Every structure is written in structure tokens, then in C-alpha cells.
């Protein structure tokens, strides 16, 4: 699936099942909430925190997909072509950082 197809699929789903997009501000709050859920799993799985007995088993991939879903919603409703934006961002990072990380002693 391409990014463009994902944007189209989300838009089709919203039109068929979601009635309409939530407002941009609501979706920004939901994105923050979803990133928090992802961070909780990451900090307990790869960090120093442990899971509580009351924590429900969460699927890391599913949480990442939740973040992606809401990000795509925001892109769709603000007119952002994520493929184009990502390609520009990759070019920017490459131009800016092509040697930076290779020269970073902390990464060796």
C-alpha cells in the first residue's frame, strides 16, 4: 500500500462509516492521546518501567497504526499530500544530515 492509497482509504472509510472528520483540533488531541498510548507500551517494553497487573495487553503495531490513522486524517482534512511532504522531508534530511551522523562519535 502506498501512502497515497492509505490517504484515499482513510478518506473513503470516513465518508462511508465516520459521517465526517472530527475537527482538526479534536484530531490533534486524539493524535496526542494515541502517541501517549504508544509511548506507554514503548516505555514498558523497551524502557525501565514495568507493566502493572491492571495494564491490558496492547499490540505495539496496532498502536502505531492508530497514530498513523489520525495523522492521515489530519493530512486529508488540511490538504496535505503526505507522499509529497515525505519526499521533500527526506530530501531535506539528506541534504542537511548526509555527513552529520557519520561524523558523530556518539554513534560509533
TrEMBL record:
Annotated keywords: Hydrolase
Domain NTP pyrophosphohydrolase MazG-like: 23-100
Pfam family, one: MazG
GO MF terms, alphabetically ordered: hydrolase activity
Keyword presence, Hydrolase: yes
Family matches, as InterPro entries: MazG-like_dom, MazG-related_YpjD, YpjD/YvdC
Protein name (record): NTP pyrophosphatase (Non-canonical NTP hydrolase)
Originating organism: Dyadobacter jejuensis
Amino acid at each position: 500500500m502506498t501512502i497515497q492509497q492509505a490517504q484515499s482509504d482513510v478518506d473513503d472509510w470516513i465518508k462511508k462509516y465516520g459521517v465526517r472528520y472530527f475537527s482538526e483540533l479534536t484530531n490533534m488531541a486524539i493524535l496526542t492521546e494515541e502517541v501517549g498510548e504508544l509511548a506507554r507500551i514503548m516505555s514498558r517494553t523497551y524502557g525501565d518501567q514495568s507493566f502493572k497487573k491492571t495494564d491490558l495487553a496492547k499490540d505495539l503495531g496496532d498502536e502505531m497504526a492508530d497514530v498513523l490513522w489520525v495523522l492521515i486524517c489530519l493530512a486529508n482534512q488540511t490538504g496535505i499530500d503526505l507522499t509529497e511532504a515525505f519526499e521533500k522531508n527526506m530530501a531535506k534530511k539528506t541534504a542537511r544530515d548526509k555527513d552529520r551522523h557519520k561524523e558523530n562519535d556518539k554513534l560509533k
